[in-house]
Request: fold
Amino acid sequence: MDIFQKCLDFDRATRVREQGLYPYFIPLSGQVGPEMEIDGRKIIMLGSNNYLGLTNHPTVKQKAIMALEKYGTGCTGSRFLNGTLDLHVMLEEKLAEFLKSERVLTFSTGFQTNLGVISTLAHKGDTIFVDRSDHASIIDGTRLSHARVFKFRHNDTGHLRHLLEREREMGALLVVDGVFSMEGDLANLPEILPLAHEFRARVIVDDAHGVGVMGEHGRGTAEHFGVEDQVDILVGTFSKSFASIGGFASGPAKVMDYIQHASRPLIFSASMPPPAVATVLAALEVIQEEPERLANVHRAADRAREGLRQLGYDIGDSCAAPIIPVIIGDDMLTFLTWKRLFEEGVFTNAVISPAVAPDRAMLRTSYMSTHTEECIDRALAAFEKVGSELDLI
Ligand SMILES: Cc1ncc(COP(=O)(O)O)c(C=O)c1O
Reply:
């Protein structure tokens, strides 16, 4: 059969487009802020991971411009051979200081970080345990490792224990998201970590959505729970709170040194471009110098969470992170709700299977420190109007 046959047969997107409900690849015009222009209209943005609003911070932008002038537009090579700038090294040192870790290693994206770290640490014959709701990059990292993979039910430590006991596995790798990217709930680290240690498993926490916004200082979900010293490796991204692109792994120096010399996604892919590195360095300074941003993002999310709950929406287990799901269930109804909210001036993210379970199609909403109370209230008014109209609440 022609390898292209699956493409010719693919009509899922076309069917949704034909009904005028297609919510993906929407071109945004201008800077990603709490309100922005889409299709010539002003829209409240509840669909961005710009949690701390730093993509528009004057100092952050200035530092990116200065790096562009000094170093040019790109590195044209991998960290390994010819793509390491003094800026990369400085970022790794400053981030290690911030995270209180021995060593940080940067990658070109968060996705590549998971591919690179997991597939370098685990090989054929090893065992990996993952939460069923872990991010796609973790799952793909486990596939690339050729290790045996066991998925435990989402945040279900009883099921994890059952699998660990059944496999009588000592010395495995356990990987979880810190903040789950779609539903915004937190990994139950206070229960997962002791369990991992009982079975001598090493733990990676991917805190792409936690670093910058969770914990008193923004060091992430482990800081939030007071268990930082029990996590072996922290993985993160620069594409959310850090307002740029890139990823990092943080952990023991010997482990990072090994990954640095063995990880194919690190060695065979070009490094983060200079303006991106400078952006992250500047964002790191702002995170430490303007702690009110962290407080403000939670203030905005708490107001939205309370409002959506009071309206009667199902917001899952969202409790502390600035991601709030509005669970609708059915795909087409989710697209319709997305469209009506868009028409009412609110941008959300429509999420369907396989990103979430098939019966849990949802609108993912996320918040920024720059969302005002008035802005959140206007968004809630739109949710109320659309929810009543479509019989959702
Ligand atoms: C939990 C998690 N890990 C990794 C990534 C990948 O990060 P990046 O977009 O920087 O490649 C994401 C991005 O959505 C994520 O949510």
User: Anything to note?
Assistant: Residues 109-111, 114, 135, 137, 177, 181, 206, 208-209, 237, 239, 247 surround pyridoxal-5'-phosphate (CB under 6 Å). Residues 122 and 374 are 49 Å apart (CA to CA). DSSP finds 15 helices and 13 strands in the chain.
